Amino acid sequence: MSLVFVPERLRGRVQIPEDNVQRLLEENDQLIRCIVEYQNKGRAAECSLYQQVLHRNLIYLATLADASPAQPEKPTT
């Protein structure tokens, strides 16, 4: 997602609790599993519903990533 979609006042200032992000990532994992299961069963309508929720979650996470300050890279040892 482009920074164009993140309001100027939010760029580099968003602080979202890490557990919220982790919870969304776990939900996305479960959604992907459900999508695969329904695809294997040929149930396209259910796939579509789960894909919409997954898409919304991914857009939200991308927006957070764009609005968050850059994290310095940790040196490798």
- Tally the structural domains: 1
Q: N- to C-terminal separation?
A: 32 Å
Query: Total helix count?
Result: 2
Number of strands: 0
Mean pLDDT over the residues:
79
* Major sheet: none
Q: Give the overall shape.
A: elongated
Give the ordered list of helices and strands.
HH
What proportion of the residues form beta strands (DSSP E)?
under 5%
Into which percent range does the helicity of residues fall? 55-70%
Structural class: mainly alpha
Any idea what the radius of gyration is? 16 Å
Poorly predicted ranges: none
Protein name: SS18 N-terminal domain-containing protein
Domain SS18 N-terminal: 15-69
Pfam families: SSXT
Family: Belongs to the SS18 family.
List keywords for this structure.
77 residues, mainly alpha, 2 helices
What would your notes on this structure say?
The chain has 77 residues and is mainly alpha-helical. It has one domain (13-67). It has helices at 18-41, 44-67. α1 runs antiparallel to α2 (44-67). It is elongated and about 45 Å long. The model has no long low-confidence stretch (mean pLDDT 79). Belongs to the SS18 family. This is SS18 N-terminal domain-containing protein.
